[in-house]
## 1
Amino acid sequence: MADPRFFPAAGPTRLADIAGAAGASFEGDPDRLFTGVGPLQAAGPDDVSFLDNRRYAGLLAETRAGAVILAGAFAGQVPAGTVALVTPQPYLGFARAARLLHPPPAPVPGIHPTAVVAADAVVGEGTEIGPHAVIGAGARIGRGCILGAQVTVGPAVEIGDHCRLLPHSSVSHAILGEGVVLHPGARIGQEGFGFAPTPDGRFETMPQLGRVILGDFVEVGANACVDRGSQGDTVLGPGTRLDNLVQIGHNVRTGRGCVVVGQAGIAGSTVLEDYVTVAAQAGLTGHLRIGAQARIGAQAGVMNDVPAKTDVIGSPSMPVREFWRAMAKLKALGGGRGGEGKAG
């Protein structure tokens, strides 16, 4: 259940409005009121729940939820008193309903007295600047933004409308679109990892003279890092999502709607086309091209280009079917050794 101390409810909210947000049809009183959301086993009569995995269908008959968002195949299994909100995409419908019932905090317009804002910085109407935030010279902050405690925005940075920069995140050498979210500790625009060795064994840092461009509605997870470009720009396309602890090297470019999961790393100048997924702890070497809708498996080591709509796994990575055939042969080989190598 959503703890009201941390997730205040916007409700009570009418059933008809919840169904509209979820894109669901229903039978029942459109004016019935709901106050929150919860899982099937814990939700009460004033809560909305959902079912998106048939593994949990057994919980449906026992739920006390007032309404359940689900696919049509399960609509006949809801108990008496529970409204079936039927939609072809229950998980998406529930996400939208939950956001309606528990919306993110709205900005509280104003600049905290401990914040440091450069005299020539521009702060848009309705924006909230939190305690000890620092806004550099010539920076431009859009309307309706939230900049949390100890956020740092470097000189000349541009931030679009309705962005949320959560505590301890920092931005430099960057232009952010509308609705961008930086989670706590995210780092945008720092110097990339580039250097030239000298004849006497030292390293000379290569100047990193590019920017970071974050498209509309990009989200960057906690403690994730996006390096600025060296000569060109590092670009994350609209809707791209980075999980926590992701590393994006200089001059990486992603298309629309890419997803990079926790602890994955993408080396410099690699290009991800639209809707690529990179799973947890995968590593991509530099100067690659990953085709649209390709999927990189967890802990994969990608050293070559990946064609569009291809799933790869393993290190070095290979198409999924090849990987599992290789694993089957390896297991068979190991099983035919007569127990050699066993301890004891």
## 2
Amino acid sequence: MEFFQIAAMALEHNHSIDYYYEESEINGTHDYSQYELICIKEEVRNFAKVFLPAFFTIAFIIGIAGNSIVVVIYACYKKQRTKTDVYILNLAVADLLLLFTLPFWAVNAVHGWVLGKIMCKVTSALYTVNFVSGMQFLACISIDRYWAVTKAPSHSGVGRPCLIICFCVWMAAILLSVPQLVFYTVNHMARCIPTFPHHLGTSVKASIQLLEICFGFVIPFLIMGVCYFITARTLIKMPNIKKSRPLKVLLTVVIVFIVTQLPYNIVKFCQAIDIIYFLITDCDMSKRMDVAIQVTESIALFHSCLNPVLYVFMGSSFKNYIMKAAKKYGSWRRQRQNVEEIPFDSEVPTEPTSTLSI
């Protein structure tokens, strides 16, 4: 019997979206003599045990530091906020929440899921909510920059439409996370994976993937591409202004988005097509697909670490806020260090000291 036929038999009884894993749930009667023909992916899991924790640790440290600074500055120091500021603040919050899920997935890659079924569902849903909402807030930023450059500037600040847009973005992302809440579970190998009922068929599994691609990449990419293209063309036509820096920023934003997001979504699209048509019939090709999804998804996640650099630290006004916050913190530290210390065993005052030790 051909490998494809054996794999199809396994997938017919398999409730998981994974490719031919030997730990797949197989129900009913089956010819156990054919098991050796099912693709064994121990090397794929061994790669994940090394690569994912290392990459997630780097992304977690860098991303938490950068996005935390953004949230602190916008929430505590910058009182006059524009629409772009609100979108950047929401983007930083989405990135932070996304990054907070990475330690769980790192542990899952090494030791399996140890937090139970409920946390598996919640963590998977949080991952989707914040990944998708982050992409949509990038599109919102591009629209606002387009209006700022091509239309008459507005001084109304943040209004109800901006808040409604933010609410709609979060709601759309939450709706897209419903399949994670419903279908993710912990299998008998202690892995947090999607488990689809057999009666739903492969079309539903593929539809979920395609919806995530559409709302998490295609729509934001088209909006960003059109808005930034028109913005760049408008900047070039404007006389007597310094164009090089804004154009470089726009070009950098688009290039980074394409480089980090396009490979992952291409692999996801191929995976969705394979779910429907069973195109991958070779075990080695299936293994390469699994490794590709791990690597490209990690690169896509790293965009959360780059957002503060692309959208915030390139702006001179935000740098000024950082300097003000640093000076304020430095002044506070000096005041604390110069406090006169009175010893408990004497009534004679001492000289000012730079230590707080008793």
## 3
Amino acid sequence: MSITEKATTVRPIGFIGKIKAHIEILDPVTWISVFPCLTGGAMASGAMQGNVHDYLLLFALFLIYGPLGTGFSQSVNDYFDLELDRISEPTRPIPSGRLTKQEALWNWSIVLAIAVLLGSWLSLHIGGQRGWIIALSLFTGLSLGYIYSAPPLKLKKNILLSAPAVGISYGVITWISANAFFSEIRPEALWMAGLNFFMATALIIMNDFKSQEGDAKGGMKSLAVMIGPKNTFLVAFTIVDLVFAVFAWLAWSWGFHLLMYFLLITLLVDIVIQVMLYRDPHKGLYFMQNAVDDGFGHTIGKSEIHEHNAFLRFQVVNNILFLVNQFIAAGLIGMKYMQ
């Protein structure tokens, strides 16, 4: 029996097992990645009220972009990457035999239908220009989620297309949608969406370290394949640093002077960490390894590849610093419009 046959030969798993497999293919761990931007966009509106109606709207927004939107993109990815997953991730629901390819097709088709129906209803509920913005954002996110993995475009094959697609999906439409749910689009929200776009782009560039070898064999044009790990670190770190620098300038221009000083301190901390990791991806920032393995490992993943492991350690520190600054900025922006 071949390795592939062993991977796809399993005992019947029953109804509960099928439900678990259907949830697993939606990759629940990835859902939380959109929540900070959704929360920030809502906070920056300065118009969300502490009543049941607005909290239900926010919950619906989390549902659309988390389990439905992000889940749809993950399910589509598993469906079209079956042959690759048989080699690299044979325990996933389809290659392990817990779901057939037809069942996976039904999975993402149903999730897509629910997302479209719920999103359409919410767009009509909000109405006007804001309703159109919400509808367009959702359509953009679902479209990118599909063509990211599906042929013939399959954006993930080229980092020059895949990274911007991820940045738009996770950083731009989430901020704008959440803002439009409760108010007219604040100019500051557009800037914050742009910052999140570039931050997400930088992180996805480094995330490709984990599949560098497979990408090279499969013809995938990740930046690590094209210019090597060292240069990839330089490109990604430069983008991250520019994000913090522009963020600091924006904070100053918005009158948030204390936040600007905090952002500059954050930038210096990030640069020190980056130098440590660039010099030695294996041991740099290694004191954060326990946080990756035991604390955030279930959320951000684990890796045996030195460069990718270094990225995970960096991600823990960088994401905390960026999110703290982002939430402070969102709160200050919201307070400005509450006056």
## 4
Amino acid sequence: MATTEKKPAPLPFHFQFLAGAIAGVSEIVTMYPLDVVKTRFQLQVGTGGVEGYTSIGDCFRKIIKNEGFSRLYRGILPPILVEAPKRATKFAANEQYSQLYLSFFQMEKMNQPLSILTGVSAGMTEALLVASFELVKIRLQDKNSAGKYNGTMDCIKKIYQQEGPMAFFNGLEATMWRHALWNGGYFGCIHYVRTLLPKAETKQGELMVNFTAGAIGGTCGTLLNTPMDVVKTRVQNQSAGVVKKYNWAVPSLNTIYKEEGFAALYKGFTPKVLRLGPGGGILLVVFDQVSTLIRKHLM
């Protein structure tokens, strides 16, 4: 006789926020150096000359040799500060949009198109929160800013004084594109991969399914959004006093393509996917585990 598995009730928003926050901080602390490497590649025009980076290993080696090991964690404070609300918003907004769209379309359960729609919606919501923090992080990660900013607060102060408060919203449009594409691919792939994998019979099996689905989802999201990530990085690294070469996302994509070729739109892809593939798995596993503990002990 067939049995119907009861899906766990959605967590209240404050518990979704907590689970997403813990998952996000776990991922960023583990994978942050790859984000620094990704940014360096995205800011490098052409081959970068003698000081340019030729591979992930070369980038790591040159950063450590020329700037010190701690440089791999420079700029981590802004993403740490926003990571809790950012990841919490990702999962909480995805859950809330899921309930909203299920009701709106009068459907009983999620399917892949609906998973993509909720992911895109959650991503655009998330982008509104993180754009300013991303800008500060990019400025600190750029090797040319080594002597320009003395830390996160100094960076914020100088951007405000030299460029005005609206400068913190530079790149918002590209950030919304980036997050919409990543979240749509991430949550859409997770739903699809879970339908393909055999049903887990043990807790360890469930962890493996979640990690596999999350890692594939993270890889898919990275494939989709890397060009917009390159654009976002270029836009946000333009400071005051220079003619801005990159403005709106789509024209900037065209500029990079014409001047540097299609491959330039995927600069930093390898360190990005090495971070966000496994990182996507870490996110999903930690979120699900914390959610389980909350349901067991706090509800």
